[in-house]
Amino acid sequence: MTPSKELTNMADLVSLSKQRGFIFPSSEIYGGIGSCWDYGPLGVALKLNIKDSWWRAMTDRDDVEGVDASILMHPRVWEASGHVEGFVDPLVDCKTCKGRFRADKLEHASCGKKPSKNPGKTEECQLTEARNFNLMFKTNMGPLEDSSSIVYLRPETAQGIFVNFDNVQKTARQKIPFGIAQIGKAFRNEITPGNFIFRTREFEQMEMQFFVKPGTDMEWFEKWKQTRIDWHLSNGLRRSKLRFHQHGPTELAHYARAAFDVEYEFPIGWQEIEGIHNRSDFDLRRHQEFSGKKCEYFDEASKEKYLPFVIETSVGCDRALLAVLCDAYRIEGEGEEARTVLKLSPKLAPYKVAVFPLMKKPDLLEFTDKVYADMKKNFRATYDESGSIGKRYRRQDEIGTPYCVTIDYDGLADGTVTVRERDSMTQERVSATQLVAYIQNKMSGWKAE
Ligand code: GAP
């Protein structure tokens, strides 16, 4: 069997992502800006596929509706949600190196003067007392820059769902239990962002709030836990790399009654990619109190009126994407023969098929054009005619294209093409007229290794 190495150093993925057009440092020509990243042509395609996978998993259900709320919301929303008061991290400064660190994560930080040591662990370090730092970005709405015009960039998408609970329930004529799903940007002025796109100050969330009758909440909590782990598996993540972490009483967020994280084993260790929370009626109760508007639900059948409990599933799109890339990354073989390959699920791969003419000869190109046009009608496909076929395979391996189709002279004679599979590197001759069905069949039978 070919020896295969997994990703052990995030820097290798950062480098591949930049070279192949998945992810670039933001504002790179100006030297970059801390913790912001831009998705390139392949990155944006992968991200859209992840969002599509999530959106379908949520809204193909009859009991989940979608919304797209604005990023800027009434400032009272964030008072009601508890973010103005409580969305804080403990911050310490080092008077010597001028570094700023999260007081509760010093064991993961490096001293500015002696990077091999943690802050506070050298004689030179002079750490201040911890003080609370609010993670919300503030800005002003309108031409006046005073305290009356302050608005926040939302730190989570969830509140746009809570404030629309009544609008959606009534217009979509949903009955409890039902959910509302949303994908959108969120912003947090993290003290210590880092590890590529793992912790950034601007990121995308895919959140769903499921409104249930009090008393049925833990039953739904368990159902959603299972549904969500199944979704990560459906994206090709290996089961051995996923686990649940239950929040203990000191870890629970201010709104949560019970919480589990879905964790993935990154090269930096086990880390959260998704949170599943039982938020009780905390948010609707607070919005009712702060807005003066009723947020209760009236159950026509039982004639009961109550504030629903909420089960929330909240996954970072960028973090899910990072897990997908880390999981797919392999180096197979050794020396000259080594290849870097992204074993992405075909469902998520930016291109499903690459089409190559063996040579740039008019008769081959004519047949290739026909095959390529047929592929593009059915899949996201790409074309490459430069370099040896071996080099072209390697280029597609690095960006995770699961199937490469080569057109040669035998094919001109009998109407066949060669299909090469990314994962096994096996090749098969297939009739061009059967190619779409062949690839569809391969894609639906794909399994993570
Ligand atoms: N509405 C609940 C909520 O926002 P959270 O655990 O703070 O819960 C949910 O965030 C998910 O959002 C996390 O599991 C993670 O995937 C993603 N996330 C949070 N902060 C992030 C950051 N700074 N950078 C990238 N993703 C982040």
Record keyword descriptors for this entry.
BirA Bifunctional Protein, domain 2, five-stranded mixed beta sheet, alpha+beta, 3 domains, single chain, binds glycyl-adenosine-5'-phosphate, 24 strands, seven-stranded mixed beta sheet
Can you offer a commentary on this structure?
This protein is 30% helix and 27% strand. Helix 10 (362-378) links the parallel strand 20 and strand 21. With 449 residues, it is an alpha+beta fold. The strands form 7 sheets. The protein has a 7-stranded mixed sheet, with helices on both faces. Strands 21-20-22-23-24 form a 5-stranded mixed sheet, sandwiched between helices. Strands 1-18-19 form a 3-stranded antiparallel sheet. The longest helix is centred in the N-terminal third of the chain and has 19 residues, at 41-59. It is globular, with a radius of gyration of 25 Å.
Q: Nutshell version of this structure?
A:
The chain has 449 residues and is α+β, with helices and mostly antiparallel strands. The protein has 13 helices and 24 strands. The chain folds into 3 domains: 4-74 and 142-326, BirA Bifunctional Protein, domain 2; 88-134; 351-444, 3-Layer(aba) Sandwich (Rossmann fold).
SSE blueprint:
Layout: E1 4-6, H1 10-20, E2 23-25, E3 37-39, H2 41-59, E4 64-66, H3 75-80, H4 83-86, E5 88-93, E6 100-102, E7 131-134, E8 138-140, E9 150-152, H5 158-162, H6 165-171, E10 178-187, E11 202-212, H7 217-234, E12 242-246, E13 258-266, E14 269-278, H8 282-291, E15 297-299, E16 304-306, E17 309-316, H9 317-328, E18 329-332, E19 339-342, E20 353-357, H10 362-378, E21 381-383, H11 389-399, E22 403-407, H12 409-414, E23 416-421, E24 427-431, H13 435-444
Parallel strand pairs: 4-10, 20-21, 20-22
Antiparallel strand pairs: 1-18, 2-3, 5-6, 5-7, 8-9, 10-11, 11-17, 12-13, 13-14, 14-17, 15-16, 18-19, 22-23, 23-24
The structure holds glycyl-adenosine-5'-phosphate.
